Amino acid sequence: MKQWFRYMFSRSFIRTVFRLGIVWSLLLGGLWFYLKVYTQPGSTRLMPDLKTATLQEASDELSSLGLVPVHLDSIYSRKGRPFEVIDQVPPAASKIKAGRKVYLTTYRSTPPFERLGIEEGQDPGIARIVLENKGFEVEETFEPNLALVGRVIRLEDEQGNSLAPDVRRPKGTRVVLVSGTTTRELVGVPNVKGLTLAEARTTVLKAKMSLGLVEFAESVEDASDSARAKVLEQHLLPTLDKAVPAGTELDLYLGLRWDRGRIEQN
Length: 266
Hints:
The chain has helices spanning 2-8, 11-39, 55-64, 124-133, 197-206, 223-228, 257-265; strands at 44-46, 68-75, 85-89, 95-97, 101-107, 113-115, 137-144, 152-156, 162-163, 168-170, 174-181, 186-187, 210-216, 230-234, 244-245, 249-255.
């Protein structure tokens, strides 16, 4: 017992206790510093609603709260105000700690450019859908065109200048889609029997009609046969009278010389 008391009050015991006290103080101090600096329990913020604010207004408000604004992306809309905030991450009313990044999405100040991609002869309905999906405003107009009845003739800008398929314009641009149509004029049906397809096409267009469905007999097997084939039948009978509207389609059936005999036998 006496030895224990002697040890309790010995210098070595006191030094040991002192050292343990220093170690515990350092551990507790380090833990407090970690909680204070890294977890920051007193720096939690309530995320404000930044939508409809400008990018500058949102950045100033976030900075005043100790948050870091990051302009993440921008989206174009004709009705949107340039640099107006339309999305934020984290969302409004979230609890967020100081120093965190806040990602902002805004409207673009300028529209992106898109390729028109519309060519002569396309279906006007499909062309309109393609253009509208790309963000263009489409105005449709028609003009008489015997070769392109019900088809796209061209695209124009608002000043009437033709626009090629590869031309690029900003989204939201107004373009004019010009399609072919018939007129109220009545014309006669030409006789194209015995003509090649190229000759028949020229004759039909000259008569102010349009070339319709073209079919070939089974004997026409290659390009050479197609070039030599002659019109054997046309679905509208020839007439000198003005009997059909201009632009009416004329369907043709073509074959080689010996196909004529088969038709006459039938």
